[in-house]
Amino acid sequence: MESAIPQQIRAELGQILSNLVLGDNEIRRSAEKVLNDKWLANQPEILLLALAEFSRQSPDAHMRAFAAILLRRLIFRPPLHAVPPPHPHQALASSKTTIYDHLSEATRGSLESILLAALREERDQSALKGVTETICELAVGSFERKRPFPELLSTASQLAESGDPMHRESAFRIFTNVPHLLWDQNPQQVVAVLESALKSTESTSVRHAALKACAVYLSSNDPGLQSQTVGLMYPVLVALSEFAPADQTKALETLTSLASDYRTAGLFRPHIETLTRLMEPFLNEQRQVDATATPTLANPGLPQFVWPPTGPAPPMDEEEALIERRWMPQQPPP
C-alpha cells in the first residue's frame, strides 16, 4: 500500500514519536507540545494516518506498538480546536463529538484498511496486541455511530482459522471486545468456531481468549440467541477442567460475570454436577486449612476478615478494563 503521507512529514512525525519515548523529560514535553499544537490541533487526519502507517510499517516492533496505542488514545479525544456545528441546533451534540467524528469518510476507511493490514501482517506479540486493541476501539466507535465495518468480520474470521496462535488469539480478542460481530451471525456457526478454539490442543492463550469470547457472547440479553447458544456451556466447562491448575483460577474468573448475573446464571443450572466436580479441587484446598488450631504469636492462623478492604486494589489489565466497561452485564440496583 502506497503511503498517503509525504516522506518529509513521515520523517518529522517519526522523530516526534521517538522523542516521546525518551527518558529526558524536557525533550518529551517538547515533543508532546509539537504533537498537540501543530498536528493534533491543526492536521489531525495526517497525524492519525501517519500513526496507522507507523503501526504497520515501522521496522521497530516497539515503535509499531507505540504508534498503535497512541492512535487509539487520540482518535476519540475531543478536538483541540472548537469545530463550529453546521446548524445552531446541533451545538450541544457538536460539543460532545470527537476527532473521529470530524474525519473524512476517506480517512476513516484508510485507517481501517491500514490497521487491518497491520493486523494480518504483524508477527510481534506486543505490537499485535497494540494493533488489535486499536482496531477494537475503532470498531466500537464506528458501530456506536451506526457506521458499518464489514471488513473486520471477514478479517477476524480468517485469523480465527490462522495457523499462527498469536493471530488466533487476536481474533478472539476482537470477538470479545466487539461481540456484535458474533451476535449478528448464525449462532450454530459461531458456536462451532468458539467450541473448536476451546479444545485442549490449542495453546493456553488461545483457549483463554476464546473463553472470554464465549463469556461475552453468552452474556447477550436476547432470549432467542440464548436458547440457541446454551449448548456452548458444556464445552466451556470441559475446557475449564482441562486448563492446567496454574491457569484454572484465571479461567474461572472469566465466567464470574455470567454466574453472578441473574439473566445468565441459569445457563449453569443444567451443569451443576459438572461444575461441582470442577470445583472439587478448590474446595479440597480449603478443607486442608486447619481452622481448629489455636492462634498463637508464632502461628496466628488465617488473617481476620476486614471490610472494607484496605490497601490499593490490584491493577486491572487494560484490555480487561475495556471489556468490563463495555460489555459485562451490570447487576440490577438493590
Radius of gyration over alpha carbons?
24 Å
Instruction: Please state the overall shape, judged from the principal axes of the Cα atoms.
Output: globular
Instruction: Give me the strand/helix succession.
Output: HHHHHHHHHHHHHHHHHH
**Sheet/helix structural class:** mainly alpha
Largest beta sheet, briefly?
Answer: none
Tally of individual helices:
18
Low-pLDDT residue intervals, each spanning 5 or more residues = 87-95, 327-334
Subcellular location: Cytoplasm; Nucleus
Protein name: IPO4/5-like TPR repeats domain-containing protein
Domain IPO4/5-like TPR repeats: 126-276
InterPro entries: ARM-like, ARM-type_fold, Importin_beta, TPR_IPO4/5
Structural description of this entry:
The protein is mainly α and 334 residues long. It contains 18 helices and no strands. α6 packs antiparallel against α7 (125-144). The N and C termini lie far apart (55 Å). 30% of the residues are buried. It is found in: Cytoplasm; Nucleus. Residues 126-276 form the IPO4/5-like TPR repeats domain.
Descriptive keywords:
mainly alpha, 18 helices, ARM-type_fold, protein transport
